[in-house]
Design goal:
Chain lengths: ~210, ~725
């Protein structure tokens, strides 16, 4: 963990999310992109589960979105926040949309540019916490001091990722079980997924048939 | 004649609900606010702190209020978007008078108030004082709740006043009063993270009380285990240590079965019981038959779950039990709550840090609005309207003869039944939308159409206001000042953020104006809501819910004050029952044996499926406000019928199909949502919508004999592809 313990950092704990969309509703209240929400709340598979997961920009130390941008439209602030595309530069090619391993940037046709979460830079740069992490009623999103999170949460805060061969370090942390030190997402052939039907832990009918 | 004066389509075109999608002035012109006012959210009993931004005397947005200790800036989507009800195009800005076939015509205030007073006097002279009734709401401030009770008893002298808390908190209230002697959550929420095991029964916390989620998760980070009882796997249940998918109405099976196991394993605190409890022996004797197998048959779950729950709850060093409407909305709602509380008292884990009990109030002022004397059987300070000493005290505060105060009147549903039967001819209603929120919707609409005079105070044309003869445009929460009492019993201060728009009037002024026309002006000479609060303090003094030592200044300074607070130097009472001292005269908790019995209407061959109802996070109660806020409507636009894939397959229904859910009383047309997260014998439809989409077309008008709460959580239906 490279962040200084007393510095404020952004944390996601997916296990806490209740899918209420307070983050989505609050994001569009942010003064830099009024009326437009830039956080993604994923419903994993409503038929099988009520599980949901919020996704803010992870603010990679070496942002892939910026690296693949042919127009050099995506800039990083000195404190490591990756910003939305610069309007005069963005050509709307969506390279960033395809390249981001977290699925964060989206091309917005209304304004003809890529828009994404900038960690509420207008707020965080003036000492306020991001909208989503302030209102989140479940604590799935938190903007807090690292030592406070270590003191009050179980598990481990990780910002080290591996997607296939790609290593990524992010400014945003996720909370994972203590034994995990890096989130590794291997390349999985689709055929193997079809073979292995995962168990169905959230089927109420199955729970009722237990002995 | 109280019927909608025009076809509904024409009324909807004129008065909505229409959707507000942007703040006043639009997203791009908002600019820096002129001021930011700390106050509270109006949507639900958590009463979160929130700051509202004001520009040019319009509310244009919000800013989290992180200093308020209960929610520390956290909000649900309703809180985030609540400001969009301000400057809404549907806002009523003039009194309206019904003209059959022509709709509602604007009239001036004096004409409207004179007509209401004239009709009240005519009806009371013709049919007697009780022939005119008042229905109110639990989203009113304490001041307004107090005023409504006094208005009914002093200005109208009718016994018939009740409120929509009758659909919400009354089962929990009755159970707590019977066992503990006080109707209030026993502990502040700050005790939750210190509990080692938490049992949540019939409370969809993620949808209905989202702010409580963080308290549960904090407890879990501290090592707590979580047990959840619900027919649906809610977001809280998904990661609980033990999820018990109890059948609706089967909760007593789980509670009594757990106690049976705890007795057998020696996990009863007999020392505590000997010192602080009456009635235990009878409870213990009654539990002999609740073997895990029998209990499991009652609850509709495997016996192993009940044993496991007992093993988690029984030996814990600290514990917290929470419940809400899921166990309360039953014709045995009081008994369900009492059986749950038995689990708390039998372990002695109450009245100390990290151990206790709470009911989760649903409505904005669900706690406070039931203490100030607008229930048909109560006077201010949670006093008993049949207790001579209580009556004497209130008569002195009001300056009236004790004998002039009416006795117990009808509760909400019997009151509507009396209207239907022609025994009540006139009604004044505020903060209540029974056309959407009461069970057996067809019957309710029919009842309202039989009134000779129906007056409604509301800021929007609710589905119920469409039936009115006169509609008075009232005020939103943020347009008036006052107090509410949150889920913990913490009295908090709502500030007046802006004034009501031209043409509308603060609710309390409307009531005082009518009272004055009825010749009771001297008893309603209030110049402000602070005047009302000061009288409320005197009225509550010495009562169970004692606000005597609470001032608005103390509330601001201390971030809320917990009642009872009898004097200015009293710190307030965040935690009740410390040292095992309960509120009955003998200081003890009074337990009773609880036997399970079936619901008023269990499934049968003709109607083989259980319908249960509830809420979604983006809507509040009958939706008068939240169905007008565009972003909240977009989040969950219309009710859906949740059903398990097995049930769906047997009905030939696929996800997204339109289905007809039909009971003996009526039907609702909704899209199916096929999910594995619900019991296969049960379907769920949320109730916030009117007309064809109203789940309450189906629900049953069966009441708990003690609390008179309707049985919203179980009735029998059949479901077919529409």
């Amino acid at each position: 963990m490279s962040t200084v313990m007393s510095e404020l950092a952004f944390f996601i704990d997916y296990s806490r999310c209740i899918g209420c969309q307070a983050c989505v509703q609050a994001c569009e209240e942010c003064d830099t992109h009024r009326g437009r929400s830039l956080i993604h709340l994923e419903t994993i598979d409503r038929r099988d589960s009520v599980q949901t997961a919020p996704q803010v920009c992870m603010h990679c130390e070496d942002p892939i979105c910026a690296r693949v941008c042919p127009a050099d439209a995506i800039k990083q602030t000195p404190d490591g926040v990756v910003q939305s595309s610069l309007k005069p530069r963005c050509i709307g090619c969506s390279n960033c949309v395809l390249a981001c391993p977290f699925g964060v940037p989206k091309y917005d046709g209304d304004v003809d540019q890529m828009m994404k979460c900038d960690m509420c830079y207008d707020r965080t740069s003036t000492g306020r916490r991001p909208m989503c992490a302030t209102v989140c009623p479940s604590g799935a999103l938190a903007f807090a001091k690292v030592d406070e999170i270590m003191r009050t949460r179980q598990g481990r805060a990780v910002n080290d990722w591996q997607f296939g061969d790609e290593r990524v370090t992010t400014k945003v942390f996720v909370l994972v079980p203590t034994e995990v030190t890096r989130v590794a997402v291997p390349v999985i052939p689709l055929s193997s997924l079809r073979r292995r039907r995962p168990p169905d832990p959230y089927d109420v009918a199955a729970l009722l048939e237990a002995p | 004649m109280a019927k909608p004066p025009l076809p509904l389509s024409q009324l909807i075109a004129e008065y909505g609900p229409h959707l507000s999608h942007e703040p006043w002035g639009g997203w791009t012109t908002r600019g820096e606010p002129d001021r930011v006012v700390p106050t509270h959210c109006c949507f639900c009993g958590q009463q979160c702190g929130i700051q509202l931004k004001v520009k040019d005397e319009k509310i244009v947005g919000f800013e989290p209020w992180e200093a308020f200790p209960f929610n520390r800036g956290k909000l649900c989507p309703k809180g985030v978007k609540r400001y969009m009800q301000d400057e809404h195009p549907d806002r009523l800005l003039t009194p309206l008078e019904r003209h059959d076939g022509r709709g509602f015509a604007p009239i001036d205030w004096n004409t409207a108030l004179d007509r209401a007073a004239r009709e009240i006097q005519r009806i009371q002279q013709t049919y007697g004082r009780d022939g005119f009734a008042v229905l109110t709401g639990a989203s009113l401030t304490n001041e307004k709740a107090y005023l409504m009770g006094k208005f009914a008893r002093v200005a109208l002298r009718t016994a018939n006043i009740d409120y929509n808390g009758r659909l919400c908190m009354v089962s929990a209230a009755a159970a707590s009063k019977k066992i503990f002697g006080i109707d209030r959550s026993a502990n502040p929420w700050s005790d939750l993270p210190k509990a080692k095991v938490i049992l949540v029964a019939g409370a969809d916390i993620a949808e209905c009380a989202p702010i409580t989620t963080d308290y549960l998760w904090q407890a879990r980070e501290n090592g707590a285990q979580l047990i959840v009882l619900d027919p649906r796997m809610t977001p809280i249940a998904r990661t609980a240590d033990l999820f018990i998918p109890v059948r609706s109405g089967g909760d007593i099976g789980v509670f009594n079965g757990m106690l049976h196991v705890m007795i057998a394993r020696g996990w009863i605190n007999r020392e505590f019981i000997a010192a602080h409890v009456t009635g235990w022996d009878a409870v213990e004797a009654s539990l002999a038959r609740y073997t895990p197998e029998y209990a499991a048959a009652v609850a509709g779950v495997p016996a192993s779950m009940i044993i496991r729950a007992a093993e988690m709850w029984g030996p814990a060093e600290s514990s917290f039990l929470l419940h809400a409407r899921g166990i309360e909305h039953h014709s045995k709602g009081v008994e369900n709550c009492m059986a749950a509380i038995n689990l708390v008292v039998a372990t002695g884990r109450i009245g100390r840090e990290g151990s206790g009990y709470a009911m989760i109030t649903g409505q904005g002022n669900g706690q406070g609005a039931r203490e100030q004397g607008q229930k048909c059987d109560q006077l201010p300070g949670a006093r008993d309207i049949e207790n001579p000493t209580h009556r004497e005290h209130i008569a002195r505060v009001w300056g009236v003869d004790e004998s002039s105060i009416p006795h117990t009147g009808l509760s909400a549903v019997p009151l509507l039944e009396a209207i239907h039967a022609g025994r009540i001819k006139g009604l004044l209603l505020i903060c209540f939308n029974p056309v959407v929120s009461l069970p057996d919707g067809d019957f309710i609409r029919d009842a309202l159409s039989r009134l000779e005079f129906f007056g409604v105070i509301d800021f929007f044309m609710s589905e119920t206001a469409r039936y009115a003869d006169i509609v008075f445009p009232g005020s939103l929460m943020e347009e008036d000042e006052g107090t509410t009492t949150n889920v913990e019993g913490r009295v908090i201060h709502h500030r007046q953020v802006v004034r009501p728009p031209a043409g509308a009037r603060e609710d309390w002024r409307i009531i005082c104006d009518i009272a004055q026309r009825l010749g009771a002006g001297d008893k309603f000479a209030f110049q402000s809501t602070r005047d009302i609060f000061e009288e409320l303090r005197r009225a509550s003094k010495g009562g169970v819910a004692d606000y005597g030592g609470i001032t608005w200044e103390r509330i601001d300074r201390e971030m809320g004050v917990f009642w009872p607070c009898p004097s200015a130097d009293h710190p307030g009472t965040p935690r009740l029952y410390e040292g095992g001292r309960f509120a009955h005269a003998d200081g003890k908790a009074h337990l009773q044996p609880i036997e399970w019995r079936p619901a008023a209407e269990e499934p049968d061959d003709d109607f083989p499926i259980v319908l249960t109802t509830g809420r979604v996070v983006s809507q509040y109660l009958s939706g008068t406000q939240t169905r007008r806020i565009g972003p909240l409507v977009d989040q969950y636009p219309e009710p859906r019928c949740e059903m398990h894939p097995r049930l769906a397959a047997s009905l030939g229904v696929a996800d997204g199909d339109m289905v007809r859910v039909e009971s003996r009383r009526g039907a609702v047309l909704v899209h199916a949502q096929v999910v594995k997260t619900i019991r296969p014998d049960t379907v769920f439809v949320p109730y916030h919508w009117p007309l064809d989409q109203s789940a309450n077309n189906c629900t049953i008008r069966a009441l708990d004999p003690i609390s008179k709460i309707p049985e919203f959580k179980i009735c029998a239906v059949r479901v077919s592809k529409a």
